[in-house]
Amino acid sequence: MKKTILTLLVCVLYLPLSAQITYDEISSSELNTVRQLKIKLPKNYDPSSGIMYPLIIVFDGDYLFEPIVGQVHFQTYFDDMPSSIIVGVIQGSERRYDGYCDEVTGLPKESGLRFHNFVAQELIPYLDGKYNTSKFRVAVGHDLMGNFINSYLFKEDPLFNAYVCISPDLAGTVRDYLGKRLEFFKDDIFYYMATSDKDLPYIRDAVLSANSQISEVKNQYLTYYFDDFKGDTHYTLVNGAIAKSFDKIFQLYQPLREKELEEKVLSYEGTLDKYLVDRYDRIEDLFGIKKPITEEEFEKTVKVAEQRSDLESLEKIGKLAKKLNPESVLGNHYLALHAEKAEDIKKAIKLYEASLTLEETDLIVYDFIESKLEELRSTIELGELEKELEKEKRKIEKEEKKAEAKAKKEAKKNDDN
């Protein structure tokens, strides 16, 4: 039921996108023909902006392109993945020739090798030259083309960073040595594979065998995901596989969520400002996108610092927020909160007073700052009153002791007389 609702939602979101899909063609010397392309650019794409976008190449673009466009729109709507350039390769009656592989090696040969070279030597350079593509590339293929995209893994420098192999028709060397090949990468590789209990039996057997191999791979640079769907056929598993694979591949890009906060942030060895910086540096390194740390993520990290009673992290998060957004009230707010918890109330007041000259945020507004100032000033006044009362109390106690000593002295004098 849940999967059905999600599928319907993706379809609803996709409806207005069909008008935004454009068609292009590329003349290929490798194929000695012209190939048709379907292209979906990000919303508000501006070639002069300098913003770079991951490139998603959809093999079997005749029928896989539209579901992927809908899924990408769905996930970017919730900021679960970056806006991307999606290119579907229309293969039509050429598909069998495009995916033609040697039965022994499982790697492209003859017409398949020409198509392999077309993608690597003509299509990708053409797209990189025409659009603002980042260095992160995703390949998606189903069945025959699910096997074909693995051929790029067997090159010294893989063409793609992420591979979505949906019910791939694995063959030969690819089937038998895929796990071994994935052991040797020294750069990040994402690999996703899926089958189902109602998949074509010969495909399912080969996929399960490959999964057993890959599951044993010990490589810190490999991120591997596998799904074995229940009740889906060779074709109906496609939508679920697309959704699951994109969610996993772009997991790092997603906003900080409870699971990451509990499993990684809370137990992080070091100050939490470094966790944030390292996380977003990795997003930039991997996807070629500079994503800003949101106010909500700062807020969640601060709450973890408070949970850890980690005043050092709280102060450093404040300094980081101030550095990244010097015109915003956010950094001052966290620094004031740190001063308050360190019982330096006068410093906290000064920081909040300075905040009134900075820009409000969605969570930290001037009314809140004024209420904090009123609270802290009351604390100062109450503290000063308590000090005065304590001073007066000590004065009275001193006078009482003095009077008591004098009385004892007088009593002793009378006894002596």
UniProtKB/TrEMBL annotation:
Which UniProt keywords are listed?
Signal
Identify the Pfam families for this entry.
Answer: Esterase
Which residue positions does the secretion signal occupy?
1-19
Q: Which InterPro entries match?
A: Esterase-like, Mycobacterial_A85_antigen
Region annotation (Disordered) ranges: 393-417
What is the official name of this protein in its record?
Esterase
What is the scientific name of the source organism?
Answer: Winogradskyella luteola
